[in-house]
Amino acid sequence: MKAMVENLFALQQLVLKSSRVTSEQEAKIRQLRRNVPLPVLGHFDRIVKSGRKGVALVRHGVCSECHVRVSAGTAASLIRPKDLYLCESCGRYLLLDPAEAPEAAEGPEPSPKSSRRTPAPVA
Hints:
Blueprint (H helix, E strand, L loop, with lengths): L1 H16 L5 H12 L3 H12 L5 E5 L2 E2 L8 H6 L15 E4 L6 H4 L17
Parallel strand pairs: 1-3
Antiparallel strand pairs: 1-2
């Protein structure tokens, strides 16, 4: 899910960056759009068409677009997203600011360790 929102964020950067799109940028836009399901892309397109950004970064627990605090549960879930999250205030897709992502979130998920000790063999 994180990759999908990152694709949307990259798409947003390409679309909003320049008024004139080169053929290379157009190919990249098509590729990014193919990697996003139609319902998600439709919601994103409606927001962008109204002149707003479709993806907002969460910085210090606050949506960077509407400046409303994101719930603690949502903010915690953005560290290892298993779903898409929308801002409850402005309806934009949320992405944790990469500068705030903990290093542990980059690596594989930690496996649970057993606290049991193996009994010593009886002689």
